[in-house]
Amino acid sequence: MNTAELLLLPERRLQHIVRLLLSDTDIIRRTTTGKPLQIVSAGEWNAGAGPDFRNMAVLADGTVTIGDGEFHRRSAEWTAHGHNSDPAYDNLLLHIVLEDNAGQAFARHTLVISPDELTALLHIVPDANGVGSALSEELQEYAYRRLLRKTAEAISAAQGGSAVAAFVLLAQRHVEKRRQNRQRPSVKAALQVLDDAALVNTEPARLLARMEQGQRTPHLYRTMADIAIAKWITLGAATRMELLINAFLPTALAIASGDARRDLLAWYWSQRAAQRYSALARRYPAIGQEYIWKQQGLIEYAALHKFGSDRVAESRLREHHLMEAERCTILSKTKIVLIVEQSGRI
Predict the structure, then answer these.
(1) Which residue among 75, 82, 94, 182 sits deepest, i.e. has the most Cβ atoms within 10 Å of its Cβ?
(2) pTM of the prediction?
């Protein structure tokens, strides 16, 4: 199908197909200015007013940025739809089009999608209300769901106490759970070094204390990247990363301001995994674990579906959508913490 034929399809159907394409996070694309760009997360598909895709994560110029995306058949539709005078579209991160005919840019990045890419996915979305899904998209849903749940736990743990105390509690809970599940041979040693005094004197705890006191945390994305590779406690790299993801990050999101939230989420979506989990690899050998969010998505999926093979998992992940009511219940607990309303360069 050529561009002219694709332009006749319902926009909602095209949006759905475009989102499936953007959910393939392994592809390096080129903007209209020739800049390499990688979609780290396709964000949330917005069925209401405002930009089509909320809270996307885009890697460009070595930086991950969180923001919104808008799809049009032709870039000139930006003006025709009145977006130029609508503040909801200010500071748009990504403009996705089939044909760039405007002669100017309306977003930080403009991406032209080829007809061949769209045509290849037409069978997945047979009409404007089709219910297909890409594997990466569903893993993102599960990873986001897990992060929301962990942040809700951090909010509860911090009630009546400090963020540092919540971090210590969540870290100890995580290692104790691993001990009970016998999933780590080093958990006994980890429990011995994870006393309150040891954790309070770590760089993650000191960072939480500064955030809680309202101190500015410039370059938080870079700070997180440095902490991720530092030996801030006498444990292995994989265990340190688990504590950052399951204890520090949820606590930090629970107290962070808007700019700090953007930095923390950008780090989460771009952080590579410290190791490959053998249990997940045995169960789902065809699903990659190169990023932390992919591992977290698989862990959450496995916890909710304690049965099935890799093929069953892929089938379920491709077809399954979280029930909207359940998703809204989770979001309502932590929406102030996690929703990113404007794009911003890290």
Answers:
(1) 94
(2) 0.59
